[in-house]
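Protocol step 4 of 6: structure prediction from sequence.
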Amino acid sequence: MPKMKTNRAAAKRFKKTANGGYKSASAYTSHRFHGKTKKQRRNLRGTRMMNETTVKTYKKLLLNK
């Protein structure tokens, strides 16, 4: 049986941390900023830790990355 392949789209978007969590960029950052406050826009910058329910799904896509 061949090896399972890592989902490349997921691998480019999510990174595994040293403690086993996953981090990713924030959603809602591509357009429609006129409807968001300055505080919202500022807090959407950078990366966030994924919550545990989402991690279970993406672990399968990322295999051992």
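Step 5 (inspection) to follow. The two ends are 21 Å apart (CA to CA).
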